[in-house]
Amino acid sequence: MEFTYVPTTCPYCGTGCGLNLVVKDKKVVGVAPWHRNPVNEGKLCPKGNYAYEFINSPDRLTTPLIKKDGKFVEASWDEAYKLIASKFKSYKPEEMACLSSARVSNEENYLMQKFARAVLKTPHIDHCARLCHSSTVAGLAAVFGSGAMTNSIIDIGESKCVFVIGSNTLEQHPLIGRRIMVAKKNGAKVIVADPRLTPTAKLADLYLPFYSGTDVALMNGMMQHIIKNGLENKEFIAKRTKDFEKLKEVVMKDTYSLDNVAKICGIPAKDIATAAEWIAKAESSNLLYSMGITQHTVGVDNVKSTANLQMLTGHLGKRGGGVCALRGQNNVQGACDMGCLPNVYSGYQSVLNADLHKKMETAWSCNIAEGKAGYTVTEMINVLADTPGKLKCMYIMGENPMISDPDLHHVEKGLRTLEFLVVQDIFLTETAALADVVLPATCFAEKNGTQTSTERRVQMWRKAQDPPGQAKVDWQIICELGKVMGFEKQFDFKSSEEIFNEIAKVTPSYAGMNYARLDKPEGLHWPCPTVEHPGTPILHKEKFGTPDGLGIFTPIEYKAQAESPDKEYPLLLTTGRCIWQWHTGSMTRRSPDLEREESTGWIEINADEAKEMGIRDKEMIRAVTRRGEVQVPARVTPRIKRGVVFMPFHFVECAANVLTINALDPVAKIPEFKACAVRVEKIAEAK
Question: What is the pTM of this model?
Fold first, then answer.
């Protein structure tokens, strides 16, 4: 019995853990440690350990499907391409939209946005970063000049104080959670702000069980206490920042006194003061956040507040410091970097800049979509549902909005108005079921390519087996379709490496990268502007990425969420992930070992409140919002704040996003997944 080991990068969260795929008889049969990878040093979370189980699932898509008379029938690739091309050519550019994917490679994301802009001439291209970290891109770019995690994962272990807010890191990013544990072992103070006593919160030296959505008030209160006591880093503020007085004018208001903030957030004033002092007095302090910060109608405000706090205390541009925005999916950072956003080309080059527009036309040797920002994915769904006929055609690669997007009844209503929908995926997802044409694609184990982790580390995927049946690599599908559409020159690629070479030519932050340099466990951190450059694990060491090199303090006032609890819907619903499942479940729910651990969803309810309502643990109850209702098992626990309930969003049979609100941040257009009004009721007693 002979096994081979193929080193690659995990397809789940944004940590970028390395692993070996174990291959026997040309099929992936297991996962083994890859100790040389510096991110995880051979250790994996449960999802990584079982990352092989979905690869050869019996329900993988293996042939193109065309819907005829409401039912899918198998088709040849030529038949599928011919139909798609004829349909795509029948629509105007503004009537078409594309969704790219945080699950596919950098090369494939780059080609999808190129296809949208060069072939379809549409500016409407986006992906699921809109639903998780678009507020990070907008917020940090405005303050620092770069919308990415500032420090490396390894850095976290060197911090003297770690402040985690809006992230259950030990479950969402377990191997980053390990770095927090390393820091704690080395003497760091750990502060965790979360309405739930999560595994991460249990690690804390100081736990702040605040109300979801009160992040700005909390951080403004901390900053007021720091300034009042002269604990701000005056030298850093003077040399590296501007507009401090504008910030001070807001945060010093009586609104943000410790006593007032304590009432808003529902936590003791003395604990807010302690947290502020620990951060300000630490030699280095790292702030970690994830979607508990970003998924709000004030997501951009929340992100800017984290930047304000770290600039105020001078914890930027050095080891153990930084603002660490933890990306959700494996390549959500890369999909953003590649320009799968409606307002930028690859490398965050603005579509509104005439010179950059001309640069891309020259590079691609064709006219491209006019230089204007297109629809975000949340705007696409609203346009579809509210103004039918304005958008008529969509091409979706590796996204499943029928589970991932807010207010799922609204999403389904919108998608059903489409005249023509193409979905490219590895499984017949809930979204693919609505398509007119389904194209069978490949997973991470069946192709070469790169992905970019949350710390801006670009790493390799390495092919371990062939795709099933007639399934094709995503970049190959896009190239073949592009050629059928008449763009032979623009999509004449023979390998993922050739595509990456084009990425490097047009993307300044990737310009010094190539496959020879990336073919090592360490990969490279962008920006990497030349082939001699070593990469940049830590951003903003000497200056920020703003035009004058200064970080910009932004005064932020606290605003409540779009929908607050009331008599009819008295509780605050927040959503998130669990350690055993992932995103819409299309991969993890096909893993027997992971499904056995957590086979359905639940709603977490404070034990005292559950007792008052007569709700027992594991009892099936009804959760109701103004958007819809689901039946879901109760999980009664003292580890969640009174007035708050929590649901994971992975499970189609009790989909949390039936309940969530389609209220958007005005800048980032991200939905408010983390706060809406809900009521729970016993099914037997419901009217």
Answer: 0.95
